[in-house]
Every structure is written in C-alpha cells, then in structure tokens.
Amino acid sequence: MAIVKINPIQIAGRWQSGISLDLHTTSSTPVGYNEYGHMQFDTVRPEIAELLYRLKNRGDRDAAGPIIETAANFLAPYRDRFDSIVPVPPSHQRALQPVIVLAEGIGAQLGVPVLSCITTTRPTTQLKNVTDPEERKKQVDGLYQVDATQTRGRSILLFDDLFRSGTTMNAITDQLLGPGQAAVVRALTITKTRSNH
In terms of domain of life, where is this protein from (predicted)? Predict the structure, then answer.
C-alpha cells in the first residue's frame, strides 16, 4: 500500500477540532460544451482527491486502499483522542458507499469501532445542489437522529468524504453532543471544496 502526499487543512464547525486531508480540486478550467450542452472542465485534483473521485464516481474499489492507509497514518498519532468513528450517512444510494467503505477501513486499521448510530428521519436530497445557506439549513433540520445507547460518553471522530459548507456535519455534531450525549466530537474529511457553496 502507498501513503499519498496530503496537505491537511483545518475545518471549522461545532466539533472540537476538524481536519480535511486535502482540497477536493486544485483547479477547474472550462474546456467547452459536450454534445449534450453541458460545460466540460479540465479538473486538476490532489492525489488523494483523484483517488476519492475514482472510488466515488467510477466505483473503483482499488482506490480505497491508499485513501484508508493515508488517513489511518495521519490519525495514528491522535488515536488516544477518539474511541469510535461515526460515518455521515450517505445522501443517496450507491452500490458502493465510499464513506462507509473508508470509515470501516480506517476503523479496522486503527482498531477503532465504527458506529452506524446516525439515521435519517426522511429521504435526503443531495445538499451539493442547494447553494442557499438558509435552504441548506432547512434541508437538514430534524433530518438526523442518533442512537444514544451507542454514543453516550464516547469521544467520537465524525467522518465524511467531502467537506463543503459543514451544514450536514454540524447538524450531526449537534445530535451527537445533544441527544447522543457524546463526550466530545472531532471531525475528519478526506477532501474539502475550495469554496463553501
């Protein structure tokens, strides 16, 4: 397995501390329209973001290994700060759920249980298509619930593949610290968008 080069960036939210391992894209240049009238982009991604793209958009399971290896290597020195990993529930159905595959892989490498303790109260829309911050907030209001029997008193690492505005992760953090009675929540994502929209 290869550990890829990363550029960790702090992410702010209602959690105690948060890190994204790298940017989602370095640059994206419009190159013209395809035959369906959709603008095409020449997108440059950091190495870990390219792997994530292959895993999410191409269903390339081989891309998961180096991501898991790199994330586990990054987290190892902080291993005493969390006793469980909570993945953000996927927003839509895929044959391969990248967040779950990565969370379970990282958990296995570090010997940390992965808790599926967050459920959604209704079908979710993909927030990436909603740009208005107020509308985003409305979309997640009351959306998540937590099984407190799994989270009470725990030090949790909340995990997602992509950080955009933090709306989803903040809503889940509120649930974990409130009804979930978690002791502390920290956050980790694989990549982060350059803007918060």
Answer: Bacteria
Structure tokens that stand for 48 in this block: 């870990």
Question: What pLDDT sits at residue 40?
Answer: 85
User: What stretches in the chain show pLDDT beneath 70?
Assistant: 1, 125-129, 196-197
Q: CA-CA distances (angstroms) from residue 197 to 31, 131, 167?
A: 22, 5, 11
Give the integer Cα–Cα distance in Å for 156 and 185. 5
- Calpha distance 124→96 (Å, rounded): 18
In the chain, what are the domains? 9-192 (3.40.50.2020)
pLDDT of residue 115: 97
Q: Which residues, in sequence order, are CB contacts of 45 under 8 Å at separation 6+?
A: 24, 25, 26, 53
Please give the torsion angle defined by the CA atoms of residues 24, 27, 32 and 38, in that order, rounded to the nearest 10 degrees.
20
